[in-house]
Amino acid sequence: MSQITPDVIAAHQLTQGEYDKIVSLLGREPSFTELGIFSVMWSEHCSYKSSRIHLKKLPTESKYVLQGPGENAGIIDIGDGVAIAFKIESHNHPSFIEPFQGAATGVGGILRDIFTMGARPIAVMDSIRFGNLEDEKTGARNRRILEGVVSGIAHYGNCFGVPTVGGECVFESSYDGNPLVNVFALGVFRHDEIFYGTASGVGNPVIYVGAKTGRDGIHGASMASAEFTEESKQKRPNVQVGDPFLEKLLLEACLEAMKTGAIVGIQDMGAAGLTSSTCEMASRAGTGIEIDLQYVPQREPGMTPYEMLLSESQERMLLVAERGREGEIFDVFKKWGLDAATIGVVTDDGLFRVKDHGKVYAEIPNRALADEAPKYDRPHTTPLRVAPLDGPEFKSRDLTADLKSLIESGDICSKRWIWEQYDHQVRTNTIAGPGAEAAVVRIKGTNTSVAMSLDGNGRYCALDPREGTKLIVAECCRNLSTVGALPVATTNNLNFGNPEKPEIMAQIVESVEGLAEACRFFEVPVTGGNVSLYNETLGTPIFPTPVVGIVGTLPTTVPPPIHFQHPGRSVILLGGLRSATEQEFGGTQYAKVVLDTFWGKPPTLDMEYERRVQQTVRELVREKAVESAHDLSEGGLAVALAECSFGKAQVGAEIDLDSDLRPELLLFHEAPSRILVSTADPERVIAAARKNGVESVTIGVTLESGVVIRNQKAVLVDCRIDELGKLWDTGLVNLLHDPVSV
Amino acid sequence: MKVGVVVFPGSNCDHDAWYAVSEDLHHQAEYIWHDSNSLGDVDAVILPGGFSYGDYLRTGAIAKFSPVLKAVKEFAQAGGPVLGVCNGFQILTEAGLLPGALVRNSELKFICKTVPVEVATSDSPFTHQARRGEVLQLPVAHGEGCYVADEKTLDQLEAEDRVVLRYKGHCNGSQRDIAGILSSGRNVMGMMPHPERAADPLLGHTDGIKILNSLLTAPSLVSTTTKS
């Protein structure tokens, strides 16, 4: 048995103060096994020790919320006795070390979070961020990471049989060496099918089901709670290996076993595996659990209790059954060819007791692990700022050429190369899939569909984490409204650097407070999420990157597409042209792609106005008063107009503006609260906008070919659709140097 | 008409096939578990898409040993219509019910999109409601959909009018753009595209209905159905 020295404590990423707390909670020195248990349960990843006091500021309730934060996933009522469970989770660190398996197991983990509650997963979305693909030094590695991540997501989701219906993909050099892989999943069930992770009923058996335990992923949770260093590559064995086929069997077996009525509580074994599932289930129920590791199905002989407790082998679940009804559960798992074994029992002593062949290796009060984890109010100053407030002078150039550069740039170009590798149709619910304004899946057996949008913007948040985060929430809600959905609830993934640095902690605090304010305002409470900190490589932090996933509901129907459908229609900009100062232009895609610089602050958001714009477009879409609808976001008006012309019909537009703004700002500023619609009934659109106190400007008319934009009679942009469309379609392929797919 | 949808561990389009037959097209559909030795009283069988047995070793390679496959073979030998979609097609080739094999897409990536597919013959229980030469818009979703066979087999398939569906243009590198083929008895069809994903206007495409409805109203079956 290893001696516990300061070095051993540090290797477990515990501080001396945390170690002292362990000693005081136990009333004695921990054993080596116990130290390992504490180290994972008290890791940033599992305990949220740096963020917890701030996460409390988030709104978590509404009439739709059936389950808020604290469970495996949040649950929302969508009517007719049907509910949805959804959540997001990050797999950033593993995806850098081993992109394919890192991303694949990220998908696997979040899917288990959903079906452990009894819901059948029906949709996945991914938010992925990488370093610059063209960087001379790191470009090749970044491309390899992207390709690995995409095929990992595809491998797991496609085989499991859940459609990947949308997401986002962004390139920024701040993610060099620290890619972000955030996976969102959503499932559906009836209210009476909801299960929780509680170990109630003293004397009830504790049953292990699914894959065998191996040595993979040991200390994954603590790895995900540290910065990357040159030594990180040595941590490759810490990345778990996923088997989507096994997970598919586990899904079917769990849902079938739940129907027997013999399951009391169930939880997946995610980060910190057997340890976290056991003590969290007992902690929620106020009970204790005793397990004997000799009964745990094992992949290899000779594993120590320490290894088994900390293993993060995938595709495993822990459940508590009604005493005497174990047989019903074993029958189901046998049918699906999966291991199931009683490994312990629920007790009344509040202890997490681990034996191996009868010998006690750990005996810890559950509350000490799950609820007494350290909670820090880490010092925070002003958010780290990496850009000046004022930007450089810049000369006007050929605006049509500028538009082309933007259209083929990494963030804006078509992501078809990515999403064609994802099965986005399986389960035949996908009404609007990748590339749409928001993903829409129908809920079979009801007249309700669920819309979802996943978004982040590291640039805005680097300039102002609070306002940037509010803009993200507004954008998600706007996307949902544009397909006719009413936004109802939020999940979030907070990706930040090292919280022990006060200027990083300040980013976190500002961002969480912005999230709280916007979610409260738009009435989309937060029902769960994930925090990923220490996203730094060699001391350089990523841009602060909160990723927000918002779901909404709508009566089942096909929403209007992004694209113009017919020539001769009025093109109306709901919300108006809006304005932007030069400072507000520094975070735009124009500044990034064309000027290759970064400054200023994010666009200004007027939440009250934003809400009215959303209300207007939702009404119009539901009444089928518009033929197409697309919100303005990155790249502003000109990029949105181009995107509207990339439909099958290849219908463009002729636009006449009247603005005194500098042309670059007019075409490419990114002020929120604007939606571009085309309609055969402009009076109706204008009347609806007026009723809601929203500006609407008829800016032009759709036409057979070409995108032409004039301001005060001067031609700013004049381009053929096929030319623009080709640049947009092949942008990513060119960046990837993937000649095969051209 | 009663359709049996076979469920292997790892099938994931089983529910989609069931839903299309029963909810979209209002026929009876029931699941058949992979270890069944009998198909019961079904009039037709669908082997759905997915990753049967994880597609370990090779796609469909393990499924051919499952008990239900024996029953499917007997059913096919007796003239019963069998439709294999995607993984179902892969299983049918592995099991020897159809010639050739399906290998990794030429681009070496999974591909999911809707593609134009030409009906190469309407002389089959699966396409009699379509016209020869008609182009259907059908979704594909596969990593191993590239159809290969030796030249002699390919010539024979064409000579016997057993190439039933062809991609219009490049899709996955399939030889002679083959998307679907028939058995020599014409009652077994394998196809990579997913007709069950194109059977509801909500999902954007409805051309799959032509395939499924052909199966559900196959003339030779109407008589047996009425008899029983």
Question: Which descriptors would you attach to this protein?
Answer:
heterodimer, A: about 750 residues, alpha+beta, seven-stranded mixed β-sheet, 25 helices, about 25% strand, globular, B: about 230 residues, alpha/beta, Rossmann fold, nine-stranded mixed β-sheet, two-stranded antiparallel ribbon, 6 helices, 11 strands
Descriptive report:
- In chain A, helix 8 (139-160) runs parallel beside helix 10 (244-259), helix 18 packs parallel to helix 19 (502-521) and helix 18 packs parallel to helix 21 (607-622).
- Chain A starts with 5 loop residues before the first helix and ends in a 6-residue tail after the last helix.
- With 742 residues, chain A is an alpha+beta fold.
- Chain A has 25 helices and 28 strands.
- Chain A is globular, with a radius of gyration of 26 Å.
- A seven-stranded mixed β-sheet of chain A has the order 8-10-7-11-9-12-13.
- By secondary structure, chain B is α/β, with parallel strands linked by helices.
- Chain B has a single domain (2-217), classed as Rossmann fold (3-Layer(aba) Sandwich).
- In chain B, 25% of the residues lie in helices and 25% in strands.
- Chain B contains six helices and eleven strands.
- Chain B has helices at residues 14-24, 67-77, 87-94, 151-159, 208-216, 219-227; strands spanning 2-7, 28-33, 44-47, 82-85, 101-103, 111-119, 135-142, 146-148, 163-167, 178-182, 188-191.
- In chain B, strand 3 (44-47), helix 2 and strand 4 (82-85) form a beta-alpha-beta unit.
- The radius of gyration of chain B is 16 Å and the shape is globular.
- Mean pLDDT of chain B is 95; it is low at 221-228.
Main β-sheet description of chain A: 7 strands, mixed
**Helix count of chain B, per DSSP?**
6
Low-confidence stretches of chain A: none
Give, in spatial order, the strands making up the sheet with the most strands of chain B. 2-1-3-4-11-10-9-6-7
Which assembly state applies to the chains in this document? Answer: heterodimer
